[in-house]
## 1
Amino acid sequence: MRWSKSYLFTLREAPADAEIPSHILMVRAGLIRKVAAGIYTYGPLALKALRKFEQIVREELNVRGCQELLMPMVQPKELWDETGRWTEMGEGLQKFKNRNGHEFCLGATHEEVITDFVRKDVKSYRDLPFNLYQIQTKYRDEIRPRFGLMRGREFLMKDAYSFDLDQEGAERSYQLMREAYQAIFTRLGARFVVVAADSGNIGGNRSEEFHILADSGEDQLLVSEDGLFAANVEVCPALLKEENRAASIDQASAQGGAPEELATPGLKTIADLAKSTGLAPEQLVKTLFFMTEAQEPICVLLRGCDEANPVKIKNALGLANPPRLLLDQEVKDLTGAWPGSCGPVGLKIPIYMDQAVERMDNYMVGANRDGFHLKGVSHRRGHFKVTQVGDLRLAQEGDPNPQGQGKLKAYRGIEVGHIFYLGSKYSQAMEAQFLGEDGQLKPIEMGCYGIGVGRSIQAVIEQNHDKDGIIWPPSVAPFHVHVCMLDPEDSQVQQWVDTLEKELFAKGHEVFVDDRAERPGVKFKDADLLGFPLRVNLGARGLGQSEVEIVERKSKEIVKVSPENLVETLLKKLGESQ
Amino acid sequence: MRWSKSYLFTLREAPADAEIPSHILMVRAGLIRKVAAGIYTYGPLALKALRKFEQIVREELNVRGCQELLMPMVQPKELWDETGRWTEMGEGLQKFKNRNGHEFCLGATHEEVITDFVRKDVKSYRDLPFNLYQIQTKYRDEIRPRFGLMRGREFLMKDAYSFDLDQEGAERSYQLMREAYQAIFTRLGARFVVVAADSGNIGGNRSEEFHILADSGEDQLLVSEDGLFAANVEVCPALLKEENRAASIDQASAQGGAPEELATPGLKTIADLAKSTGLAPEQLVKTLFFMTEAQEPICVLLRGCDEANPVKIKNALGLANPPRLLLDQEVKDLTGAWPGSCGPVGLKIPIYMDQAVERMDNYMVGANRDGFHLKGVSHRRGHFKVTQVGDLRLAQEGDPNPQGQGKLKAYRGIEVGHIFYLGSKYSQAMEAQFLGEDGQLKPIEMGCYGIGVGRSIQAVIEQNHDKDGIIWPPSVAPFHVHVCMLDPEDSQVQQWVDTLEKELFAKGHEVFVDDRAERPGVKFKDADLLGFPLRVNLGARGLGQSEVEIVERKSKEIVKVSPENLVETLLKKLGESQ
């Protein structure tokens, strides 16, 4: 492909809304252009990379017996009503009415549509098992789309759905897809981890996420030192550190009388209180307020050193979505005091307590009166009633490994894949049943499995770039070789480039030729920005000296070869890099 | 591929809403399943056919220098406001608001988005020309979706857009795409015609449609006997037949006085009037009423034998969309009489006259009084004022060829492609300009080019089927060979099938094996329904007699060969059929 025949416009400047390197580079390299917030056009180069990744996905799924189909993006409300997700999915599900007043949504996921598809055909146990997938455009009305394709509204996704006779079969299907995903991200050439995860409003009993590691990743992951345990912080069990276990027990053994009100003017934060009382944050208790989707306020008690984990709270309460923190005014209306002076004593709402607080006694909490705290408070002595105790806080780096020895280490990751064991959540709600060998009607056991196709491409760029541009992994590089044609009008140069292009193409390698009338410096800069694995600098002077430069994009290593050895050397290097 | 490992469920019964053979067969063969009116899931076999056709489209476009990209399905209102089409497209454009109150639509076409994409990058004449295309899902809120993928709401389309320096360049791009389309539909293996067409609300100066010929086609096409002229009836010029030219002149020469009211109780249709007066329908005048999109009623006069052509009326009046016929009550309110007793005399609204009426004199029209007509009426003698005379009627089979000798012959077609020369309609409205070699800012000259991908697949089925099922053209057949494994448990049969599958696959031919535990009759019926080009009946008895049957799906011709010659014979037949 010649640049002069391509639709390709690189930019010197990053767009104002691009915050992370991959987003900046994708726009500068002409890969994507914004149409509206979270909505992009993929340019020809981006599409080539996407298609290569799609092909990897297809091959790894097909070889495992999965079959590709294509479901619609527009879906009728009726199907979503059957599972209750029309309401449960909230405003992220983009809904609309057509001219006849019928209600539809844009597919944010396809469990309802695939279950409907399957229940129309499947009758007997003989029809199972199978796994169906599609690569298709999805839409979610993200509140705050950002980071380019990382958190877009419209996005390309591969979604697969497995259908099995029983739990055992479903577990096999789940493991097979887990293997497929490991093969896919390995072939992509990405550094990734698999972590235990929350099932969100997809549902089901078990799920794992695949994360490409990158500093700008939106998710925090905790991995044990031996690498055998890994979890998204959302679901990572939080264990007490050795030293705190002792401290808590000391605290718990302290005796105490009735709570005593204490004027604490101006002391609103845990830091203020710690400073004023001389206690460590882990010896203090903080009181937070959340609202559930049923509009019921709840109170959550944590140690002063901990952060609430809304996903754990959601799961402890059996909610569909994580609860939201109350606004200051809502707290004031509820407790009579502004945040900073609130506590659990005297509240009429459910109180949830993190398990690290359960061990404590004789602590200080807000008095629900501005500028006052209570001291000597204890749930053990009935000063307030605890609805439920549980693991409600965020685990942190340095916390003990919940499944072995050693401590947890923190990473940041970009979620590119998610696999779910669903059980019969959808098949029961939608009556997708089969007649078993025993003559009984049974719901199909399901699993679902997603890969963010566009997000994966951006994530490998986020993981593989330097200050000059993208460093494409060969697996999805739009082109393998970038020829900077230094004297595009020179007939000898033209001849060598033509030959190079043909010979490499015959071996399955795609060559991009910068044949523009630009200075070498401009061409080199653009080559670094575009980031194809190998660059060839081919000009009249070099040919005169029987010398051509090959530059490796990743290492920036330069090798000089004679024109006669060029193709051979390139093929060797391309072989090595794959 | 083995049936036992496939997701494939054939149906004996046609669904109730399937009216035409291709729709019935696609559902029966498990190719598509309805999700909602006009919205379908494509099963694995359908997707294989679609992908094969997409590949043909890609190859023919890429070889002509077109470049593939991917634009979003969700588009912001702001872009459509720039061209005025947010309003002009009417209710077919599916609009919605997101959670922030921003307005969007689902892409029914992408002129606005591509023009926006291009205007951000293109600066100079050096950046032109180029042609960008995508294969993508579109959505139109069809009032009455029907015929499966023929008139769906959600559909797969290839849309290409050319950008040129000037009219001459744009004309070359248009011709190149015309050639590409001819190559594409030829490779598809369809019988098709290219006809002059209306530009609808896409706009521009010139357009042609590609139609796959089929009796159930929604469009009527008129083609000259010599094949050199072809047009959609919507735009086909209507010429008077030889005999009517004479008749009209006779009529025109008749003398007459003032109009005279005549009681015509119960005479409401042209047929009634013809019977009662003894005049032929072509000697009578009928009065129709339409409403424009600006809510202005108009009157249209035609001969009794002719039908109004709303597209010609739209173009004569310079409207964006064809006007709609008034309801009976609207006619009554407007004229004082019910349809059947209405006429142009005394009306205060614009009156448009078909050119066949212009030649007439002394004719009969409704009196705008129920049960009465006027006779001896003539526009030539000022009985009413004609706003405009033009070609406003539908041409018919047997009409003279407007561009040569002979008569027109009628065909029915399914529109599968449409090419438009747009000029600068979009580039002017959206300021997509470039700096010319002469230093002047100029709007880019554009063209746009669509192919209905899903509709093309259904159209070839509509064109290629018999009472037993589909007859796939080899170009897009999901599989090339269908093996009916008659004794799937027999190890010799299994061995021969395995070998057959491998050897054909090595030559690039895909084999589908019916390995179900079903009776031969069931398998043969399903093979005919699925319609892959060649069927092989392979069973233990045949092998015992050293005999395997090959059945050609199209001709139903049976050839018996020895198992040793099977692969060779199949390869020869497959070579022939491509």
## 2
Amino acid sequence: MDDNNGCILALAGGVGGAKLVAGLAGALENQPDAPSLKVVVNTGDDFEHLGLHIAPDLDSVTYALADLNDIERGWGMRGETWQFMQALERLGGETWFSLGDQDLATHVERTRLLNGGETLSQATAHLTRALDIGVDVAPMSDTPVRTIVHTDVGALAFQHYFVREQCRPAVSHFEFVGAEAASPSPLLDETLSRTDLRAVIICPSNPFISIDPMLAMPGVKARLASARAPILAVSPIIGADAVKGPAAKMLSELGYEVSAAGIYAHYDGLLDGFVVDRVDERLVTQMAPAPLRAVKTLMKSAADRTRLAQTVLDWCDELRC
Amino acid sequence: MDDNNGCILALAGGVGGAKLVAGLAGALENQPDAPSLKVVVNTGDDFEHLGLHIAPDLDSVTYALADLNDIERGWGMRGETWQFMQALERLGGETWFSLGDQDLATHVERTRLLNGGETLSQATAHLTRALDIGVDVAPMSDTPVRTIVHTDVGALAFQHYFVREQCRPAVSHFEFVGAEAASPSPLLDETLSRTDLRAVIICPSNPFISIDPMLAMPGVKARLASARAPILAVSPIIGADAVKGPAAKMLSELGYEVSAAGIYAHYDGLLDGFVVDRVDERLVTQMAPAPLRAVKTLMKSAADRTRLAQTVLDWCDELRC
């Protein structure tokens, strides 16, 4: 992809976001004069564990772009093994967070790069280059932002809520510790400043925990809102269910309608276009004049991902005219 | 084992030492009123790699005592896999030092304990307890001692010499950086002070790189020499070859006779008994009045280990009378 044809900014969180990002990369790769793709990833889920810097969303995006992701399990790497975890259990170590043997190499190498003085952006560029990923991928920030989930059993660090407690506690609100003092990463900052930014695509990620941490950094929401480029989002909710993860449960606990409409409401006027699943086609009429389109959004195969990505890119082109 | 029946101190380095240590633990376990076994392990080979504290000799001893060691390969853990290394290679990481997926759990957990403020002795006790090891195992010191190998191609950090360069450079001398300022670990210190110390057994480890780092710490050699307990060593050389590793090559490069006699000479009067292999039986007469005995020293099976250990323990008993 050539940087002279403008660029597209994709904001992504975990697995759903990673799928659409891979679809966007695939769709743009086959397109003449394609804009370059800039992928900015949530780091609110990052945490230190066993002395390693774990960045689950960066890894989901990276593995999907490198075609290393496990599609059946839905997370982590294909062909993963768990010998490390079994040995760690034998040693009495902390095993509530599963680290695959291959996946571990990413965490060890990233931690080594960070401890050697690289920023998270530099370490991410290092790892994505090594995996021959042709698009720019960066964290939302090089300074830590940590999502805290306030629940009926108290405040929980994100991975304690998400993995250890398996999202069981009822959520009252979220806190993004460090967000107020955080600056957007160089890639996010530069891309938001580009006059040839052609579109912002908010991937089908959980808005509360994958996208809001980015919007919580000073200036980001305002810069997005004032950008000339259209902002499109794809709903992570189909019918009344999240494709994956706790988005539906959170919508309910936070008092939103448990549907794509709840997601749209949460984005609060930020969107120029909102892609919902075709099972939610009724919303297109019901919510008019809100800019909704209904297509097949479930991404089970690479073809699904590319098709959805192309639909989104085409709509971006229309909106820019 | 009961600490009221006195104790035996074993000094061990890598794989050969680990085998005899396992044999000693096995032999003492079956003996009524057995003394307790205190195992002190070389840390001159330890190094920081990929941000992890690697302690190859402590691990060899620990894995052998926990019956987790790979006897066929001769090092590391049984049933080991290498998915981490392959993933690390894909990421362009440093792959000259092989870290198995199971083995990695030890390094990650130890590094976590050390970074949490534990001493290496405490971390080692933590790991050996988790593996139900019934004997005390400790590093020689809680402060870093790092073996530097001076060679015809310059000074090399130990693992660079040993693994990366596969012991090819010719050795001129060794340096144990930090040894002068290092204190013996609590286990080594306490055991050397015990009036009921019944024997010191120097395992069939490479004297230059496994035992000398311990003897280089202030006071250790003198305290051993003045202890009332007999000091026995088992030769790591059989005929003109090391059972494993570069001991024979080092003897030659350093101007010693390349045989068990070279090892005995290097220990320079420290030994009250020296066990050589029966293929070296001629040395018993040739070197008289040096206290040599020739037995089968090659340890291929658990029975071999226990038999050799029992021979050594019996001789210790004789010498104490």
